[in-house]
C-alpha cells in the first residue's frame, strides 16, 4: 500500500447553529399480529439466510455492481482482521456466494463506499479504518488493477488523521460532475473529530494529490451520516443537506449526544455550512440515523434515530427508537418515541410498496432485529410487526432485491461476531426455508 503525500487541509469558518421548533407527540399505539391479520394485511416475517460465517465482525457495508453482471455486489469490511471483501453472485441465484478480497493489512474496518469516482466504468472502494487498537484512524481508497475485479487491487491513503472514523456518504458536493464524499470521525481527545469531506479534483483516484480535505465542523463524537442523503431540508432548492448524529462513544469525555443537520452552502469549499440542532440528547450514545417518508405524505425528510448506551447509563427519557417528523410548511419537527429499548442500526425503506416506509432496527436490549410497520389508521403510528434473534447488527443495513423477485425489500445485515447474512421479507403463511452455509473462497 503506497503512502503518498497527505492532501492539504482547507478549514472554513465553523458551522453556524440554527434554531428550530420541536413538538413532542404522544407515543403511538401498537397493534398485535392478530389485529394485523384482522385488518386484512398479511403478517410479515424476517427469514435469515447465511452469506458467510468464515469472517468475523462483518461491518462497513456498501453496494455496487462490481463485476458488471447486472446485480449489486455487497462490499464488506471486517471489524476484526482489517480486510475488505466483495461477494460475487449469480443474478439467477443468490447462492452460493463467492468471496474476493479487495484489501488487507488494516486494523478495524468500520465503513466502505463503493462508487466509480473517475468515470472509467470500474468501481473504486473507499475504506474507513477505525483502528481503535492501533490509532490513528485512516481513510483509504482501493482500485482494481485490471478489468477483472476478481484480481488484485491497489490502495492509497487519503486521510491519515481520522481517529475513530466510522462512515461516509458519496455525492457530488461541489456540483462539478465529479463524485466527492462526506465522512465523520469521533476523534481522540478534546478538539479532535468532526464532519469533513474530500473533494475529488479528477484524474487518477489513487493519486492522493487529486483529493483535498475540507472541514465542515469540528465536533468531537461525530458519528453517523444519513445514508439516504443528501436532502433539501430547508426548502431553499439546494439538495445538499446532510442529517448526522453525534454520539458519546469512543470520545465520550469530550462529546455530547445530538441529532444535527448541516446545510450545504452555494460554495461548499469556501463558505460555512449552517447547522440545525434537531435534538440535544446529551448523556446518550446517539447512533444511526436515516431519512425517509414515515407518514406517507410524500415528504422523505422525516428522520428515524436509534439511541443506546454501551454502558447502559443512557437516561430513560432519551434511550430508544425515535422519529423526528418534518413539517416543511410550519418549519417544525414532531418527535415520536416508538421504543425505550437500546436501539441501533436503524433503516427506513418502503419494503411493502405502499408508499410509506417501514423501519428496521436492532434492539440491543434483547438482541433482536426488528421490523416496525406503519399503522394505516394513524399517520405517526407504527407497530412491531416482526423480529428475529440476532446478536449485533453492525452497523449499516442495506436494502436490495437479493432473491430476484423484482422487489427491493431484502436486507443485507452484517453481524458482530457471526459473519454476513441477508434477510428475506415474506408472508407468514408461506415462509421459504433458510439457506445456510459459509461462502466459499474464490480460487
How many helices? The count is 1
Number of strand elements? 32
Structural class designation: mainly beta
Measured distance between first and last alpha carbons: 23 Å
The dominant shape is: globular
The order of strands across the largest sheet is 1-16-15-14-13
List unreliable stretches of 5+ residues.
Answer: 1-14, 434-443
How would you sum up the major sheet? Answer: 5 strands, mixed
Q: Provide the gyration radius in Å.
A: 21 Å
| Average residue pLDDT | 88
Helix content estimate: under 10%
Describe the structure.
There is one protein chain. The strands form 7 sheets. The chain has a 5-stranded mixed β-sheet with strand order 1-16-15-14-13, with no helix packed on it. It has a 5-stranded mixed β-sheet with strand order 2-20-19-18-17, with no helix packed on it. It has one helix spanning 33-38, and strands at residues 9-10, 17-18, 21-24, 44-52, 58-64, 73-78, 84-90, 93-103, 109-115, 124-129, 138-144, 153-159, 165-171, 180-185, 194-200, 211-217, 222-225, 242-246, 258-263, 274-280, 285-292, 302-308, 320-327, 332-339, 343-349, 358-363, 368-374, 382-389, 398-400, 410-415, 419-427, 440-441. With 443 residues, it is mainly β. It is globular. It starts with 8 loop residues before the first strand and ends with a strand.
Q: Topology, please?
A:
Layout: E1 9-10, E2 17-18, E3 21-24, H1 33-38, E4 44-52, E5 58-64, E6 73-78, E7 84-90, E8 93-103, E9 109-115, E10 124-129, E11 138-144, E12 153-159, E13 165-171, E14 180-185, E15 194-200, E16 211-217, E17 222-225, E18 242-246, E19 258-263, E20 274-280, E21 285-292, E22 302-308, E23 320-327, E24 332-339, E25 343-349, E26 358-363, E27 368-374, E28 382-389, E29 398-400, E30 410-415, E31 419-427, E32 440-441
Parallel strand pairs: 1-16, 2-20, 3-24, 8-32
Antiparallel strand pairs: 4-31, 5-6, 6-7, 7-8, 9-10, 10-11, 11-12, 13-14, 14-15, 15-16, 17-18, 18-19, 19-20, 21-22, 22-23, 23-24, 25-26, 26-27, 27-28, 29-30, 30-31
Amino acid at each position: 500500500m503506497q503512502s503518498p503525500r497527505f492532501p492539504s487541509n482547507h478549514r472554513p469558518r465553523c458551522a453556524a447553529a440554527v434554531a428550530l421548533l420541536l413538538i413532542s407527540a404522544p407515543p403511538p399505539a401498537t397493534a398485535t399480529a392478530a389485529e394485523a391479520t384482522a385488518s386484512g394485511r398479511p403478517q410479515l416475517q424476517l427469514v435469515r439466510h447465511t452469506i458467510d460465517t468464515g469472517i468475523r465482525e462483518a461491518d462497513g457495508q456498501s453496494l455496487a455492481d462490481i463485476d458488471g453482471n447486472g446485480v449489486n455486489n455487497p462490499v464488506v469490511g471486517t471489524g476484526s482482521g482489517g480486510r475488505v471483501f466483495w461477494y460475487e453472485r449469480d443474478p439467477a441465484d443468490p447462492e452460493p456466494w463467492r468471496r474476493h478480497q479487495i484489501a488487507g493489512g488494516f486494523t478495524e474496518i468500520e465503513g466502505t463506499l463503493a462508487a466509480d469516482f473517475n468515470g472509467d466504468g470500474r468501481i473504486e472502494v473507499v475504506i474507513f479504518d477505525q483502528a481503535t487498537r492501533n490509532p490513528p484512524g485512516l481513510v483509504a481508497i482501493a482500485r482494481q488493477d485490471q478489468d477483472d475485479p476478481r484480481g488484485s487491487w491497489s490502495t492509497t491513503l487519503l486521510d491519515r488523521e481520522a481517529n475513530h472514523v466510522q462512515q461516509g456518504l458519496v455525492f457530488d458536493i461541489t456540483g462539478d460532475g465529479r463524485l466527492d464524499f462526506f465522512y465523520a470521525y469521533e476523534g481522540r481527545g478534546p478538539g479532535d473529530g468532526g464532519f469533513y469531506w474530500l473533494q475529488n479534483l479528477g484524474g487518477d483516484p489513487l493519486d492522493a494529490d487529486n483529493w483535498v480535505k475540507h472541514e465542515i465542523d469540528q465536533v468531537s463524537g461525530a458519528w453517523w451520516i444519513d445514508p439516504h442523503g443528501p436532502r433539501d431540508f430547508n426548502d431553499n432548492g439546494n439538495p445538499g443537506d446532510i442529517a448526522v448524529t453525534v454520539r458519546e462513544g469512543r470520545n465520550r469525555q469530550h462529546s455530547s449526544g445530538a441529532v444535527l443537520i448541516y446545510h450545504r452552502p452555494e460554495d461548499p469549499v469556501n463558505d460555512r455550512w449552517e447547522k440545525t440542532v434537531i435534538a440535544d440528547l446529551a448523556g446518550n450514545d446517539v447512533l444511526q440515523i436515516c431519512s425517509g417518508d414515515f407518514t406517507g405524505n410524500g415528504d422523505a425528510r422525516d428522520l428515524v434515530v436509534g439511541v443506546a448506551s454501551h454502558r447502559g447509563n443512557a437516561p430513560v427519557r432519551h434511550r430508544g427508537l425515535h422519529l423526528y417528523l418534518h413539517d416543511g410548511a410550519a418549519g417544525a419537527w414532531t418527535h415520536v418515541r416508538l421504543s425505550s429499548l437500546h436501539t441501533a442500526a436503524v433503516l427506513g425503506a418502503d419494503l411493502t410498496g405502499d408508499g410509506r416506509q417501514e423501519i428496521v432496527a436492532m434492539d440491543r436490549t434483547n438482541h433482536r432485529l426488528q421490523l416496525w410497520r406503519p399503522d394505516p389508521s394513524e399517520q405517526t403510528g407504527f407497530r412491531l410487526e416482526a423480529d428475529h434473534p440476532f446478536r449485533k447488527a453492525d452497523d449499516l443495513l442495506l436494502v436490495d432485491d437479493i432473491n430476484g423477485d423484482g422487489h427491493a425489500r431484502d436486507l443485507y445485515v452484517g453481524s458482530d461476531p457471526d459473519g454476513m447474512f441477508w434477510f428475506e421479507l415474506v408472508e407468514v403463511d408461506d415462509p421459504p426455508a433458510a439457506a445456510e452455509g459459509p461462502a466459499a473462497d474464490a480460487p
